[in-house]
């Protein structure tokens, strides 16, 4: 059973049944102001820090049919009083005649028909604005006139979102609301915490006369607060109470008397939910966005942003599901994930100090560099600000205050206070940016290291290149008895937390990959001496990995602090880990014969119809020495689950061995588009990647969770475009190196690259996976597989013949 369909022409996914197996969402706005909206119009909106400047109360753990954050009521005048329902289905749960929620690029559009009333609501945040717009059109579909009222409702949280849940004394005492009358007859319902009333005011208003309002949830629901959102008692009264709450649970409800709608007639109401230091500073914007023409122009501006973003890389392959993902949903998710990191989702609730992860964002940014390279550079610079002078990095930071922490390592006092892989990812990100743009001057930019003096001033600055060199040196000097990098608190797999002295094979391979990238970069900028020194480091680590880590049919994953292997056939549980195999190939450490055998082991032991498991078999019981991985049951998350982030790394490794059929088979296994018809068991949104799927050791094998904010998005996009389709930037130009399914006759790609556009047409007449016979640029054959940098603002035709 499906709950909707893809409309590629309109660049939307259309949800046709609001009763999705799990809540499905879409992001609007940015981390500056925005959040997400679900398929029934519920919303979680914040400005800046989701933990410390939350606006809307949205609690995902509540039942799906419960009110969450924001909704809309309509009431029809009937002889006995009023018929009340929500055109968003939740929270009244009335039977609908038609329901469509269009999940668009930065917006939701909900169209519904109940009781002869059609409602169309477009929900979005205008570019560079701090307000959520809901443009609502109500139409009478019946043949008789109908008298109706429209009542939009929001429920506020305290700005300090966690305190809303942990301090039921202080928070209610501070929540206040006040109505503001405008000269033109409009009304604005404001809300604030007492301590912030001079600097932070939420406002809720519309473009239509408001006859009455409510700001207290208890009064709105009625029955001394025992009323329910399904049928609030106050909506059966002629007017709301006009009560200005001075404590308690603050809401905003606005009564609009639309009056009589004749058959076929419609009325438009535009609501605004925003935040400002004072109403005075935003009054002009409030008045502007009451104009439907201005709202429509803002919506067109949002669409133009996304059209421009997506136009930078467009593909046409023989596989429709791949086209759907690569031309819209995957690059859109990359941008959302780059923007929000792991800060705010259905699963990461924006509480506490997690903020933006250094490792997370260093990987996420690589997914947008072909579309928005300078936005990517800005994020890279932000990340470099939280790198330590010794070359390691703080694990996570608040992008508003730039305060950073060592992450979960603080919670386990007997474990090291750094992650062994964090600082190495930024090497890959910086090199990817320079390959995309050619901007080697960026390497000279001075950026402070994280440590500060008592006055808060940086103790030391260094060039971008110096930051990268420090990262390399940290790992070089931080190795254990086998010459492999020490694990620290953890590596990419946060949940394996071994006591000090443990070594990480993953970090060894990531170090090797970073060294390869640095050697290539240094030779491009003509620093041969350092390139040679790093090449020697690479050879040394390669020797250690192959001498100590080959287990016969695959590479082990760790040495623990006793020197015992983890991820070995000698182990009872956790015998094999996917990342030790894929990254041994990506790094180039694995000789071809070992690489082939290791990937065959992945396919034989770890592969399932729903994706590649991270490890096998799962641990079945808590082990304090191994840490977090053993807190999950077998088949869940990192403990034998299908952790999707690691799947594209296997795809990349397979393309490096020339196995295009296998790489594409792995791609299809996790393509969410192909889950659309089995979504009852999969449950998550079929238009974005989740973080994980339960593995075959779990009774709910195939169930997905933690959608949207996942490194899976960036890496699948890179694996698809750069390795399967094989169009990837390097310092000299565009490398053309496809590794595709043998049955494909070819594919096309339009790629913007350094102020030129390349129309690439790949032909595969011999039905092979990998190999290039001929490349023609504008009709002339070139040597090799690299399209040179042109930067002439023109469109160029590239013909590629595989063979």
TrEMBL record:
<dbReference type="GO" id="GO:0030246">
    <property type="term" value="F:carbohydrate binding"/>
</dbReference>
<dbReference type="InterPro" id="IPR011013">
    <property type="entry name" value="Gal_mutarotase_sf_dom"/>
</dbReference>
<dbReference type="InterPro" id="IPR008928">
    <property type="entry name" value="6-hairpin_glycosidase_sf"/>
</dbReference>
<dbReference type="GO" id="GO:0016757">
    <property type="term" value="F:glycosyltransferase activity"/>
</dbReference>
<dbReference type="GO" id="GO:0005975">
    <property type="term" value="P:carbohydrate metabolic process"/>
</dbReference>
<keyword id="KW-0328">Glycosyltransferase</keyword>
<dbReference type="InterPro" id="IPR033432">
    <property type="entry name" value="GH94_catalytic"/>
</dbReference>
<dbReference type="InterPro" id="IPR037018">
    <property type="entry name" value="GH65_N"/>
</dbReference>
<protein>
    <submittedName>
        <fullName>Glycosyl transferase</fullName>
    </submittedName>
</protein>
<dbReference type="Pfam" id="PF06165">
    <property type="entry name" value="GH94_b-supersand"/>
</dbReference>
<dbReference type="Pfam" id="PF17167">
    <property type="entry name" value="Glyco_hydro_94"/>
</dbReference>
<dbReference type="InterPro" id="IPR010383">
    <property type="entry name" value="Glyco_hydrolase_94_b-supersand"/>
</dbReference>
<dbReference type="InterPro" id="IPR012341">
    <property type="entry name" value="6hp_glycosidase-like_sf"/>
</dbReference>
<feature type="domain" description="Glycosyl hydrolase 94 supersandwich">
    <location>
        <begin position="13"/>
        <end position="292"/>
    </location>
</feature>
<keyword id="KW-0808">Transferase</keyword>
<feature type="domain" description="Glycosyl hydrolase 94 catalytic">
    <location>
        <begin position="305"/>
        <end position="726"/>
    </location>
</feature>
<dbReference type="InterPro" id="IPR052047">
    <property type="entry name" value="GH94_Enzymes"/>
</dbReference>
């Amino acid at each position: 059973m499906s709950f909707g369909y893809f409309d590629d022409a309109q660049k939307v996914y259309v949800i046709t049944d609001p009763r999705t197996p799990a809540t499905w969402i879409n992001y609007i706005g940015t981390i500056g102001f925005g959040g997400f909206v679900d398929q029934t119009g519920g919303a979680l909106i914040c400005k800046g820090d989701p933990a410390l400047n939350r606006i809307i109360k949205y609690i995902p753990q509540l039942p799906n049919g419960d009110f969450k954050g924001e909704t809309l009521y309509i009431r029809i005048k009937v002889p006995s009083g009023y018929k009340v329902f929500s055109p968003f289905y939740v929270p009244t749960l009335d039977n609908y005649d038609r329901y469509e929620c269009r999940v668009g690029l930065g917006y939701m559009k909900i169209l519904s028909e109940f009781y002869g009333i059609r409602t169309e609501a477009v929900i979005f945040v205008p570019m560079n604005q701090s307000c959520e717009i809901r443009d609502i059109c109500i139409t009478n579909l019946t043949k008789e006139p109908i008298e109706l009222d429209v009542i939009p409702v929001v429920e506020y949280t305290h700005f300090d979102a966690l305190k809303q849940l942990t301090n039921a004394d202080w928070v209610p005492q501070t929540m206040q609301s006040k109505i503001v009358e405008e000269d033109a007859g409009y009304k604005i319902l404001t809300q604030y915490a007492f301590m912030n009333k001079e600097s932070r005011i939420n406002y809720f208003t519309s473009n239509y006369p408001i006859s009455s309002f409510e700001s207290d949830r208890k009064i709105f629901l009625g029955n001394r607060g025992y009323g329910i959102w399904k049928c609030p008692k106050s909506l059966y009264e002629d007017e709301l109470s006009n009560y200005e709450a001075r404590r308690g649970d603050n809401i905003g409800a606005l009564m609009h008397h639309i009056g009589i709608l004749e058959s076929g007639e419609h009325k438009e109401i535009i609501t605004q939910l925003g935040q400002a230091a004072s109403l005075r500073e935003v009054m002009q914007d409030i008045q502007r966005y009451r104009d439907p023409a201005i709202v429509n122009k803002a919506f067109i501006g949002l669409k133009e942003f996304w059209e421009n973003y997506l136009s930078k890389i467009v593909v046409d392959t023989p596989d429709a599901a791949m086209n759907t993902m690569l031309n819209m949903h995957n690059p859109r998710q990359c941008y959302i994930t780059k923007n929000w990191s792991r800060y705010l989702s259905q699963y990461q609730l924006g509480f506490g100090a997690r903020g933006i992860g250094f490792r997370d964002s260093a990987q996420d940014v690589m997914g947008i560099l072909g579309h928005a390279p300078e936005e990517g550079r800005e994020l890279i610079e932000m990340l470099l600000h939280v790198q330590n002078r010794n070359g390691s990095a703080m694990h996570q930071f608040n992008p508003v205050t730039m305060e950073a922490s060592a992450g979960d390592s603080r919670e386990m006092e007997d474990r090291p206070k750094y992650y062994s892989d964090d600082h190495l990812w930024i090497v890959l990100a910086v090199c990817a940016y320079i390959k995309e743009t050619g901007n080697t001057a960026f390497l000279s930019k001075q950026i402070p290291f994280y440590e500060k003096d008592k006055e808060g001033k940086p103790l030391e600055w260094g060039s971008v290149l110096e930051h990268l060199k420090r990262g390399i040196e940290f790992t070089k000097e931080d190795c254990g008895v086998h010459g492999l990098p020490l694990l620290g608190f953890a590596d990419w797999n946060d949940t394996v937390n071994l006591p000090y002295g443990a070594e990480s094979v993953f970090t060894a391979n990531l170090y090797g990959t970073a060294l390869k990238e640095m050697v290539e970069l240094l030779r491009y900028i003509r620093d041969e001496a350092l390139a040679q020194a790093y090449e020697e480091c690479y050879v040394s680590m390669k020797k250690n990995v192959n001498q100590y880590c080959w287990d016969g049919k695959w590479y082990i994953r760790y040495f623990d602090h006793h020197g015992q292997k983890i991820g070995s056939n000698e182990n009872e549980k956790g015998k094999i880990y996917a990342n030790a195999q894929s990254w041994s190939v990506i790094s180039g450490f694995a000789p071809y014969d070992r690489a082939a055998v290791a990937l065959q082991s992945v396919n034989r032991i770890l592969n399932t119809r729903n994706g590649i498991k991270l490890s096998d078999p799962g641990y079945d019981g808590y082990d304090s020495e191994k840490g977090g991985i053993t807190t999950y049951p077998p088949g869940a998350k990192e403990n034998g689950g299908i952790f999707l982030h690691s799947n594209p790394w296997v795809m990349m490794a397979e393309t490096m061995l020339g196995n295009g059929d296998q790489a594409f088979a792995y791609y299809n296994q996790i393509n969410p588009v192909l889950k659309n018809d089995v979504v009852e068991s999969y449950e998550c949104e079929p238009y974005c990647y989740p973080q994980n799927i339960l593995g075959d050791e779990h009774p709910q094998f195939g169930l997905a969770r933690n959608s949207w904010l996942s490194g899976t998005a960036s890496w699948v996009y890179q694996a698809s475009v750069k390795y399967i389709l094989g169009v990837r930037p390097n310092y000299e130009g565009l490398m053309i190196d496809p590794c595709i399914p043998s049955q494909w006759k070819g594919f096309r790609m339009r790629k913007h690259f350094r102020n030129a556009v390349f129309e690439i047409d790949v032909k595969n007449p011999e039905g092979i996976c990998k190999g290039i016979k001929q490349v023609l640029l504008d009709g002339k054959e070139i040597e090799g597989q690299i399209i040179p940098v042109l930067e002439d603002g023109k469109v160029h035709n590239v013909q590629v013949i595989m063979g």
